[in-house]
Amino acid sequence: MEYTWLPPSQNDRTRDGQNQVILRDILIQAVQRINGISEEVARGVYHELLAVSDNEQWTSILRGNYSRTVPGEDTKKTITIIDLLHPENNTYTVTNQLYVKSQQPRKPDVVVYVNGIPLVVIEAKSPISFKDKTGEAFDQIKQYERDIPRLFYSNAFNIITDGVSLLFGATGASSEFWGAWRDPWPMKESDFPTSFDKGLYCLLEPSRLMDILAHFIVFEIDKTDNKIVKKICRYQQYRAVNKIVERVTEDKHRKGLIWHTQGSGKSLTMVFATLKLKNHLTIQTSALTSPNIMVLTDRKNLDTQISDTFEACKLPNPKQIESIKELRTMVHSNTTGLTLISTIHKFAGSKTPVENSAEWILLVDECHRTQEKDLGAYLQATFPDARFFGFTGTPIKKNDHDTYKQFGVPGEGYLDRYSIDDAVADGATVPVRYTSRKAEWHLEAAKLDVLFDQWFANEPQERLDKIKERGITIATLAKHSARIELIAYDIWTHYTTHAMPDGFKAQIVGIDREAVILYKQALDNVIAGSLEEKGLTHDEARKQAETMSACIYSSNQEDCKPSEDPYIQGIRYELCNQLVKDEDEPEIIEDFKRTDHPLCFLIVCNKLLTGFDAPIESVMYLDSPLKDHSLLQAIARTNRVAGPQKQFGLIVDYIGVTKKLDEALASYREADVKNAMKDQDVDRAELKAAHAEVMNFIKGIQRGTNNIKAEYDALVQALGTEDVWFTFRRKAKAFIRAYEALSPDPPVLDYMDDMKWVAGFISYATMVFEKKEAVDLRTYSAKIRQMLEEHLHVTGLISLIKLRNITDPEFKDDFKTENKADDDLKTAAIRKSTELKKILAQKKEENPLRYGPFSERVLAVLQRFEQGQLSAVDTLKEYKQIMQDLENEDKAHEKSGLNESAYGVYKILETFVPKGEMVTEVRKGYDSDTSSEQDYPDLIQQLAQEIHILYSSDQSAPAGWHLKEQLRKEHRQEVRKKANHAGLNDLIPMSTRIEDYALKNYIKVS
After folding, report:
1. Which helix (H) or strand (E) holds 132?
2. pLDDT for 48-103, tens place per residue?
3. What is the secondary structure of 908-919 as a DSSP string?
């Protein structure tokens, strides 16, 4: 892709010190060339950019929002940092092993630059778990973001790869929001030799990178914790938006239908579309000179949600329409460049055509709703020449010909399709599972009379007569008090064992508003009783229970009317009492989304089953006979991604919907909905299969011997090679995750002992095979993690796998080899290999020159040990000697009379001392006032002290010295002059090495 490689040996020199990350000369030259300005002005741009530390501000600057004073011009001149419109005008550079100095120095694998600005960091590690999105590469990226934040000020996104596949994520994104770029549209899969090549092309090919930077990154305010969250497009959003833009610019067809399944970011797709249609920074076309954009939704809550999203993403001047009058005034104002957001119902009765309707682009959410009440006809009459793009989160029904006609091109179907299966495969959503609870609670229309007679047998005759007068319905039976109480108890029992341990929350869906009140009352009673059993007083338990659930429903004018029927009067009173006002509803929803808020349940009937996005919701307790669009919308509330512990959303069915799922979804094409939700039997089958695959590796290993270390050593021996170990580890993790997904349901108990044994082995074998510490436990759910931690302690495995630090009192115990069994000696040698690798990796990052040789010695000993050339005893002896030498090196400066920084200079100078030379040959011009003989090492120490003063003194090296090229040049010359007098060799590389060291240790900030 025509990037220029900058070798690691050169990337230091192109920056103003190792604590800087911009490639100075490349940036200055590119800015000069693109803008036609002087080097002096370009250099001023460089220094101004050094001060920018906000990622959102950087993104704005790179999109062209930057100007400065230029000599000879009266007003500030807009300066282009990256030419988005002409990608070929930019300079594309890639470097590896970029050492970045900080309090915790780091060295990312690969950094991608455009015009000297670091835009992408790539971390390459093998192997990576792409399904679970865990592993060292993710950890490394997070570590870099924490320790060397300067590298991420201008960052667009990051990539991790194992050389086969790759994932990308926005700056600061947690691992669950990373994804693969599966579709190379408009290219084809067959255009690339490997998925690795495809991924690199899709993300880093210059014109695509410019497009992503210009239009597909937004900064959204998360109201839950009032933080700004950076978001980058997924491939289906990039594809759909560019198809829309192409359709507008080509002007062949003036409409298109987009199905992006719920939870996959449909609202953001509309934001990205508006952003590119408005700004179009990478294309020039008269079709997008100043379009009007109208975003339409079908419900007030969706209207608010999308408006909030547009506003949170800081789209230019979005206007939420408040009334029919305001809508008609705005669309008929003959103004250009508008961005309006409205509900479609405000178009009811609108027939007057807009004069400039050809300049309007309408993005219609849940577009199938336009067929209700002739709304589609009113839209068409108002905007006869407009472009219409319909969006839907659920597939269009088979018989909905009108929606296809209004928004689809004949024969095309969907302009862009991103199905339920696509979203799950990408990890954009989690799959939805269902489980049916007790059959006696399920309701069927054919059995209503029989069930009524059974359940209402003990009711007073007067009440029975009133019920029969109104007619026996499913709702009648669904709200039977005994049934509600039993289900409420079951909900609480299920929730406290399945969802609560990991901090997840739930919705309860009742059949109507009365059911919502009945569930609230029953649940309060159940929770309060449970809390009293734990020691709370009756009043405390009651008060706490009431805060744990909230009812969300619409008010009705009947609610406040009195009734002579005590039951009806009680329900009406509670409907008024529990009502959450519209203005208070957002606060309740935000409380529900917060992990630290006690609100666990939202009890609803119709509200919050669409347009409600709460990743923290993992369970829906369903007691309403939903079907078709309503069912698809409802179950999708649980499909949002929320960390590795949420493997799927769960629908707990109390009314029997899932017994006839095919019937409930019969109006859709089977291919569109066949995997909308699956029985939990799927997971039980997956657990069984995953268990069998792991057990194939363990066949022949004797277990249950009360010597778990011997059992694990036998499996280590059986696996043999690291490659086989990696295969086993992948399958073992799949088994544990499958177990975790079902726990604590009874079927998993048959696998519990095997799961604990396998999980313990992963921790042990990671150290044996990879000589590093296992970190898997932290990715498991709380209930599994606690079980495994107990297992490690009970079996004594914790003492085998716990790594010690050099400061721990027991660190040196492994070096004691007397009276130890061979197995214990081998374990000690493995543990010391792991510990020393970790310790020296950290020290080498701090000072490669001093500690690099120690790291090499450890690796050499480890290699001989693994090849059988060293016994465990001899390995420990050599490690002990290395540790002693390391301790001596850490204290060496104390004997030298130099401080730590000066001693580091001394260690560099040592490597340039001519072999066999003595001071008598060279000291004549160096210390002519001293008559006594002086050892050459003493002379080098004196030289080190002088160089230390040169770089540490405020006079010779004031704050910001590292940014002044002339001063740095003078320092290099001074160092060479002093070193020449001392008779050292290779003066130019020596002074460069000294400067590199100074840039790590002598930087001063004013």
Report:
1. none
2. 999 999 999 999 999 999 999 888 888 899 999 999 999 999 999 999 999 988 77
3. HHHTTSPTT--G
pLDDT for 933 equals: 41
Count other Cβ atoms within 10 Å, centred on residue 549: 21
From residue 248, give the alpha-carbon distance in Å to each of 243, 253, 274.
9, 8, 12
Using DSSP bridges, classify how beta strands 318-320 and 292-297 pair: parallel, antiparallel or unpaired: unpaired
What does the pLDDT look like over 339-356, one tens digit per residue? Answer: 898 888 888 888 899 988
Cβ contacts of 178-187, under 8 Å, gap ≥ 24:
178/133, 178/138, 179/234, 179/235, 179/426, 179/427, 179/428, 180/130, 180/426, 181/235, 182/235, 182/425, 182/426, 183/235, 183/236, 183/239, 185/235, 185/239, 185/242
pLDDT of residue 215: 94
- The burial of 71, by beta-carbon neighbours within 10 Å (0-12 exposed, 13-18 middle, 19 or more buried), is given as exposed
Q: Which amino acid is at 475?
A: A
**For 585-666, where are the alpha helices, taking DSSP H only?**
585-593, 628-635, 661-664
User: Quick check: 488 and 601 in contact, CB under 8 A?
Assistant: no
User: How far is it, in rounded angstroms, from Cα 354 to Cα 385?
Assistant: 9
Q: Which two tokens stand for residue 529?
A: 């009783």
CA gap 499, 896 in Å, rounded: 62
Least confident among 200-204, 299-303, 314-318, 653-657: 299-303
Q: Give the distance from CA 440 to its chain's centroid.
A: 43
Amino acid present at 776: D
Q: How is residue 179 written in tokens?
A: 């994804």
- Please, how many CA atoms are within 13 Å of residue 633, restricted to the half-sphere of its CB? 18
CA nearest to 23, candidates 162, 154, 148: 154
Q: How many CA atoms lie within 13 A of 90 on its CB side?
A: 25
Which tens digit of pLDDT belongs to each residue from 718-750? 999 888 998 999 899 899 989 988 888 888 889
| Cα–Cα nearest to 220, from 209, 211, 212, 228 | 228
Half-sphere exposure of 588 (CA within 13 A, CB side): 21
Report the share of the chain in percent with pLDDT over 90. Answer: 41
Helix, strand, coil percentages (3-state) for the chain, rounded to 5, are: 55, 10, 35
Say which range, 286-290, 788-792, 876-880, has the weakest mean pLDDT. Answer: 788-792
Neighbouring residues of 556: CB distance < 8 A, sequence distance ≥ 6: 513, 575
Give the whole-angstrom CA distance, residue 155 versus residue 144. 12
Q: Give the containing element (helix H, strand E) for 118.
A: strand 117-124
Compare 408 and 599 and report the one with higher pLDDT: 599
List the one residue out of 429, 395, 132 whose CA is nearest residue 264.
Answer: 429
